[in-house]
Amino acid sequence: MSGTGVEIIPCFADPSEVAVVAKEAGGLGKEWLDAHETYQNKRGLEIVQNHFTFALKLSRGDQSFLDRLPNTVALKEKTQDYVNEMSAEFPSLENWEADELSFHLYDDQEVGLSRHRDNLRFIGLVAIVAIEGECDLVITHKGQDMISPVLPGDLCLLRAPGLIDTDEEIRPEHSVQNLKTETRLSMMLRANDRPAEAIPGFKFNNWDPGQTSD
Q1: How do residues 12-43 score in pLDDT, each as one tens digit?
Q2: Model confidence over 45-72: pLDDT tens digits?
Q3: For the chain: N or C, fewer Cβ within 10 A?
Q4: Residue 204, CB half-sphere, CA atoms under 13 Å: how many?
Q5: 175 in a domain, yes or no?
Q6: Is residue 82 part of a domain?
Q7: Has residue 63 been placed in a domain?
Q8: Buried/exposed 11-44: b ≥16 CB within 10 Å, e otherwise
Q9: 190 exposed, middle or buried (CB, 10 Å; 0-12, 13-18, 19+)?
């Protein structure tokens, strides 16, 4: 993995794989949640997010949603297997297992999601597969912006706590910008080391953290 904390694997999923996942996402209809919001994070950064989400908790809640998304599940498994195989270089990934699966549908050509780091609760890696549309993934490293175009089928891997044994901050600053298409759809997988807790500002379609039984 590069020193920026981000690795992009081009053409990880072939066009037929992303096409069937896009079709499943397109059938969600009114189940998309509006996540458009501007707020200030704990570091004082203004966070702008221009997207809709459909998110599933994989270890809790109603798992019947997955029955409607067989191709999405297949791509999730392929991605998870790839991450596990990286354990030859990063032993911490041997048993990495996604706890959350979410679709993100961006609809602003300038800023889909402004500069931020992923939450500390997400461990090992955050894995994102581009499904439809084109954008730039902008990595801010040592004060410099590095722009990486992302195309459908590309897999983006972002470092997260626990990947390596260090007390240093390894999470990359990144943003989704410059959509080249009207919208951009991605599938994100995260392993949450606090799975029973709510995530501030994030909702799941199949699980309410206020539930007492899962």
Answers
A1: 999 999 999 999 999 999 999 999 999 998 88
A2: 899 999 999 999 999 999 999 999 999 9
A3: C
A4: 23
A5: yes
A6: yes
A7: yes
A8: ebbeeebbeebbebbeebeeeebebeeeeeeeee
A9: buried
